[in-house]
Amino acid sequence: MTSPLAPSAADALLFDLGGVVIDFDLARTLKAWAVELGNDPSAMLATLARNDTFHRYETGHVTDAEFFASVRAALRLDLSDDQLREGWNAIFVGEIAGIAPLLARAASRLPLYALSNTNDAHIAHFSERYSGLLKPFRELFLSSQIGLRKPNAEAFDFVVNAIGVAPSRIVFFDDLAENIEAARKRGLQAVHVRSSADVARALDQLGL
């Protein structure tokens, strides 16, 4: 079990977006693309995640058109780029329940930043749709813009350097255990988020 955070133990807070701030569901995308979901739609995400094109897309080395062409071939879809984009953006459900007031509360005391694995199509969509929700963040470090993605150590090192705060004074919130482990290896404090209650608990421990 992770030790509780100490009061005044942070100078900056770093949040993942998907699964921590904004909820998403791949089944919505597959349904929009009229892909047979089967028993485990997450298996389709795993297939995409193993695809080198997907990783290169999330680090800005593949264009929207190239990614959609890869998806079209992999899933044998007869859809235009615009149709694929619309379905791709259907993945977003809405803000995580209870997170907005917690972000506002935290931002009144400490600077907030985000580090998220994402892509240009999603950025264009959520930046507009969730502009109010994202307002408390001082800066967003998005993988396709910085050319680095979690859980690679270089992504954390880049963000720590950009923030200008010692890693031990940054608390990182993420919903994936592999990213939590990677952050801790780079010296950050990290909180595994399963719901906004985990964020609230961490803020309480920090005295925020």
From TrEMBL:
InterPro entries: HAD-like_sf, HAD-SF_hydro_IA, HAD_sf, PGP-like_dom2. One of its GO terms (molecular function) is hydrolase activity. Coiled coil: none annotated. Keywords: Hydrolase. The keyword Hydrolase applies. This is Putative hydrolase of the HAD superfamily. It comes from Rhodopseudomonas pseudopalustris.
